# Entry
Amino acid sequence: MALHYTTLPVTPFAQNCSLLWCEQTREAALVDAGGEHERLLAEVAARGLTLKMLLVTHAHIDHAGAVGQLAREQGLPVVGPHVGDQFWIDGLAKQSAMFGFPPAEPFVPTRWLEDGDTVQLGQEVLAVRHCPGHTPGHVVFHSASAQRCFVGDVLFVGSIGRTDFPGGNHEQLLSSIRERLWPMGDEVVFIPGHGPEGTLGHERRTNPFLSHSRWG
# Structure
């Protein structure tokens, strides 16, 4: 497997920031740099990697709180989310105050993402799927070669993302999972925004919110 990663829980919400890298080129990306930017940079340095970009699944504070500062200080492009999350980016300062986070710097994505886009990291390619429901602009990053998908807050082991925030939609979230995640294959390991990893097949069969009888 040429794509490697490690999971680094950050913020009081224990959000799973993922450090991804291409083994051949040692080029790296951070998925959902929600906070603790110095710790994240230390992990990059300790592994001898070159940080090339910041990937964002969605713009809730625990997933995007450190993105602006990292982008400014390190001169990094911000890739994602989908433009549907513009209002969440605009509200990052308010979010940080509401939840007691350090003040979040605003940022403008270098590249908004659409369903079907790809992101190149060294010699690795990540496929982008737009998965609205938790937020309107939520995206996930799928590595077919590594059989891994970084799903943010769309899906969890035994649960699914909340849909009671502004812009959330329960039925839309269920459709995103059914139409965007399940076709990736049962063997794909998903890395959620919180909690342990799981396989799509196990969740398709056992997740109480996504019962087999309901979806067929």
User: Anything to note?
Assistant: The mean pLDDT is 96.
